[in-house]
Amino acid sequence: MNKSTAVVRNISDTALWVAYFRARETHRADALFRDPYAERLAGERGFHIAQTLPAGNKHEWAWVARTYLFDKFLLREIQTGANLVVNLAAGLDTRPYRMDLPSTLEWVEVDLPDTVSYKKEVLAGENPRCKLEQIALDLSDVEARRSLFADLACRAKKAVVMSEGFLIYLTEEEVSLLADDLAAATRFESWIIDLASPGQLKLMMATTGKVLDAAGAPFKFGPREGASFFATHGWVPGDVQGFLKTAAELHRAPQELLSLLPEPKGVPGNYPWTGACLLQRARSLEGIKRQ
């Protein structure tokens, strides 16, 4: 436990771990996506984290499915008119560099200063395929993020927000407040998130979660209502796709987990479920007031 804890210093280190899985998929002959920057970004530390954490190298299929679904949802929103992407807690994401995007698309990444600096250093000399802006900001600063959201909303015709691997580290109260703030920003039309069921959250907390908890990054958010949690905060589920089902369809799911299919309909509850959700602005709640 002590050895594992020393490897993960803080929440930002999890971005190195995620980059490791993108690098692994990229090296496959049948890769579902290719990220030529992932290996550099993961570095030796990212590979070491994956090999050291309990089950740290076990669920590659889930990370790959998450990346695939976020790509899919993002492209769909861009193709239907989104001219601004707002990536909250962007980590070491390289979509502005690796995806086929319109050169006129505006892409704004927001993350902690150290993460932004590290990414700029590693990718120095690389050219994004769209208009990329990187903003160093602690998203727990509520007033600062509200000011940012208001500014970005003024610049957009239609914006899509994404927060990959972020909400699980927040409390329900923090997620609710963030959802309200995003809903209050006009022209933020859709929001792509990943979500875990309460049952899956318990499983994760019993393995990798213990180490991340010790590093100050505990898993917290796994709402019993599933994606419907966001309905009272200005967002309704538009498309919800489970990682295991997606991985099975893409021939990435391990054989021993196929018995869990088909996934339950509706709210997963104690069923061990993780997935990606495309949330849409709820028109009837556009006048939502911040608490």
Descriptive account of the structure:
With 291 residues, the chain is α/β, with parallel strands linked by helices. The chain has a single domain (59-285), classed as Vaccinia Virus protein VP39 (Rossmann fold). It is 41% helix and 16% strand. A seven-stranded mixed β-sheet has the order 3-2-1-4-5-7-6, sandwiched between helices. β4, α8 and β5 (188-196) form a beta-alpha-beta unit. α2 crosses α3 (38-52), α2 packs across α4 (60-79) and α4 (60-79) packs across α11. The longest helix has 20 residues, at 60-79. It is globular.
Strand content: 15-25%
Structural class: alpha/beta
Instruction: Name the CATH class.
Output: Alpha Beta
Kindly provide the radius of gyration, computed on alpha-carbon positions and rounded to a whole number of angstroms: 18 Å
Spatial shape = globular
Low-confidence stretches: 1-5, 285-291
What labels would you give this structure?
291 residues, alpha/beta, Rossmann fold, seven-stranded mixed beta sheet, 11 helices
Question: What is the structure about, briefly put?
Answer:
41% of the residues lie in helices and 16% in strands.
